[in-house]
Amino acid sequence: MTQILDGKALAKTIQAQLTAKVHDWTPQVGRPPGLAVIMVGDNPASAAYVRNKERACDRVGIASFGQKLPGDTPQAYLEGLIAELNADERVDGILLQLPVPQHINDVTLLNTIDPNKDADGLHPVNLGRLVRGEPGLRSCTPLGVMQLLHANGIDIAGKQAVVIGRSILVGKPMALMLLEANATVTVAHSRTHNLSALTRSADIVVSAIGRSHFLTADHIQAGAIVVDVGINRIETSAGQYRLVGDVDYEAVSPIASAITPVPGGVGPMTVTMLLHNTVLSYCQRMPALAHERGTLLS
Ligand SMILES: Nc1nc(=O)c2c([nH]1)NC[C@@H]1CN(c3ccc(C(=O)N[C@@H](CCC(=O)O)C(=O)O)cc3)C=[N+]21
Ligand SMILES: [Mg+2]
Question: Which of 3.40.50.620, 3.40.50.720, 2.40.40.10, 3.40.30.10 would CATH assign to domain 140-267?
Answer without folding.
Answer: 3.40.50.720
